[in-house]
Design a protein that fits this description.
single chain, 284 residues, alpha/beta, 5-stranded mixed β-sheet, 30% helix, globular
Length: 284
């Protein structure tokens, strides 16, 4: 596969305790999967555990056609987050990062340099490696989610594409925030506003893409779906209004089912270990 979109960092299983099921997820995993579904050649670098949760993440990535050749399988529990759905919106409760923290290797950085766009984010725990990622990546995308201004001020100068979440913002507020972040260095800034759609800024061009009406079942992973589709559009060099509209519509459609991208697993399933052939080296 020609890898055009490489994601680096977090994975998790979202455990819906009230439903008795879990779904694979995590920003970096979700972006890779949605990028692949949108047509990008996608690969993921991260660490999964040797429990049923780790198997669920790995099996889902393989099933979705995401390159996992640099994924590590580390002895121990996979990252998880407990989720409740309240009026269609996901509410995170208890969670644990498990074995998901890792260090990038020379082989990883070679893959980073060869990709068209590299993506990571605030959940991936790679801030101390972000300067090296920035130096190696042709274009680096970063999801700032709802982090405070001082966090954004620190790391935005290292990235080329910045994604920010302001779920309660007006279009005017989102545009002001996009301009503020753009002034820090990123060439493109996208600010998502939940049901309000998204604002995108590149150069002097500012675009607002409203979210289409959608029957919402679960909003978990909608922002990551937006990013995956947005980055695929950038790889294809689509105009800003085209790619922002496509990304917003795609994210809205992702809210029609549970989980970030499907692949439901029962919480009562056997906890058999992963096949040793998949096991990597613990680099945490």
């Amino acid at each position: 596969m020609n890898v055009t979109l490489l994601t680096v960092g977090d994975n998790v299983v979202d455990r819906y305790l009230e439903l008795g099921v879990l779904y694979p997820g995590g920003n970096a995993v979700n972006v890779a999967v949605h990028g692949r579904r949108s047509g990008a050649g996608a690969a993921y670098i991260g660490a999964v555990g040797t429990d049923v949760a780790g198997r669920a993440v790995l099996d889902a990535l393989v099933a979705e056609g995401v390159d996992t050749s640099l994924l590590r399988v580390v002895e121990g529990p996979n990252a998880y987050a407990d989720v409740r759905i309240v009026d269609g919106n996901r509410v995170f409760e208890h969670g644990d990062p498990g074995v998901s923290r890792f260090r990038l290797t020379p082989a990883d950085f070679a893959a980073v340099a060869a990709a068209t766009i590299v993506h990571t984010g605030e959940c991936s725990m790679v801030e101390d490696q972000l300067a090296d990622l920035s130096a190696a990546a042709p274009r680096l995308s970063f999801d700032f989610s709802e982090r405070p201004d001082d966090y954004i001020d620190t790391y935005a100068p290292l990235v080329d594409i910045a994604i920010r979440s302001l779920p309660s913002a007006t279009v005017e507020e989102a545009e002001r925030e996009a301009r503020r972040i753009h002034a820090l260095g990123p060439e493109l800034v996208a600010v998502t506003m939940g049901a309000g759609g998204a604002v995108g800024l590149r150069g002097e061009q500012v675009v607002h893409a409203p979210a289409p009406a959608t029957a919402v079942v679960d909003t978990l992973g909608a922002g990551d779906a937006f990013i995956g589709r947005l980055l695929t559009g950038l790889i294809d060099d689509a105009p800003l209004d085209t790619l922002l509209g496509a990304a917003t519509a795609y994210a809205s459609s992702s809210c029609a089912s549970f989980g970030a991208f499907g692949h439901e697993t029962s919480l009562e399933q056997s906890t058999a270990p992963l096949n040793p052939i998949h096991k990597g080296v613990d680099l945490s």
